Prior knowledge:
Blueprint: H1 2-23, E1 81-86, E2 89-94, E3 100-105
Antiparallel strand pairs: 1-2, 2-3
Amino acid sequence: MKLFAKTLLAAIALSFAAAPMAQAQTTYGHDRKPGYSSSWKKHEAKKRHHWRQGERVSDWKRRPAVRDYHRHGLRKPARGQQWVKVDNSYLLMSIATGIILGVNAAR
């Protein structure tokens, strides 16, 4: 019984001594958030869409409506319309159909 107790205490003491050494190992960038890399990559310019009146935007409902349109130099939308910021443009959208009724460049 004494041999077992001594062995158990030795194992516990060894685990306390080895734990800080295991944590001190370098991780070589694996502790970063996903999507970040240590290598420098040249960013490719995103291809921007040139919006035109009459086009239909499929995912416009995912973007928040612009409520303070006067602050952005936009006119008040009529009933059934709302301003939406997409890329670097403000689009006047028809709420029912998703068709672009007007386009203004963001400042």
